[in-house]
């Protein structure tokens, strides 16, 4: 069994200060979760175009940023030109 060695340290302004040169090119999926709702399967299958689903979160509640399905930060929703954007509030 090989012994694990820590990655060499590199100075940066991310707070993690790790050398990511070996994996920096790897693509990951970052998603912004707006809210959640619990519903029955019967309600789910009864949904049709135009139905409104009320979420549990308030309009100004922070979003949860999910990295490959895992919560990694909270953020607030912004408008960036004609697109949505997020401002990081706290890293997990």
Automatic annotation (TrEMBL):
<keyword id="KW-0145">Chemotaxis</keyword>
<feature type="domain" description="Flagellar motor switch protein FliN-like C-terminal">
    <location>
        <begin position="23"/>
        <end position="91"/>
    </location>
</feature>
<keyword id="KW-0283">Flagellar rotation</keyword>
<dbReference type="Pfam" id="PF01052">
    <property type="entry name" value="FliMN_C"/>
</dbReference>
<keyword id="KW-0969">Cilium</keyword>
<dbReference type="GO" id="GO:0009425">
    <property type="term" value="C:bacterial-type flagellum basal body"/>
</dbReference>
<dbReference type="InterPro" id="IPR001543">
    <property type="entry name" value="FliN-like_C"/>
</dbReference>
<dbReference type="GO" id="GO:0005886">
    <property type="term" value="C:plasma membrane"/>
</dbReference>
<keyword id="KW-0472">Membrane</keyword>
<keyword id="KW-0966">Cell projection</keyword>
<dbReference type="GO" id="GO:0003774">
    <property type="term" value="F:cytoskeletal motor activity"/>
</dbReference>
<dbReference type="GO" id="GO:0006935">
    <property type="term" value="P:chemotaxis"/>
</dbReference>
<dbReference type="GO" id="GO:0071973">
    <property type="term" value="P:bacterial-type flagellum-dependent cell motility"/>
</dbReference>
<dbReference type="InterPro" id="IPR001172">
    <property type="entry name" value="FliN_T3SS_HrcQb"/>
</dbReference>
<comment type="similarity">
    <text>Belongs to the FliN/MopA/SpaO family.</text>
</comment>
<keyword id="KW-1003">Cell membrane</keyword>
<keyword id="KW-0282">Flagellum</keyword>
<protein>
    <recommendedName>
        <fullName>Flagellar motor switch protein FliN</fullName>
    </recommendedName>
</protein>
<dbReference type="InterPro" id="IPR051469">
    <property type="entry name" value="FliN/MopA/SpaO"/>
</dbReference>
<dbReference type="InterPro" id="IPR036429">
    <property type="entry name" value="SpoA-like_sf"/>
</dbReference>
């Amino acid at each position: 069994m090989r012994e694990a060695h820590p990655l060499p340290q590199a100075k940066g302004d991310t707070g993690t200060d790790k050398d990511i040169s070996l994996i920096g090119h790897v693509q990951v999926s970052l998603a912004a979760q707006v809210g959640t709702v619990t519903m029955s399967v019967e309600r789910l299958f009864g949904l049709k175009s135009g139905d409104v689903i009320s979420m549990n979160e308030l309009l100004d509640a922070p979003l949860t940023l999910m990295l490959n399905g895992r919560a990694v930060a909270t953020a607030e929703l912004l408008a960036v030109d004609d697109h949505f954007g997020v401002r990081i509030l706290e890293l997990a």
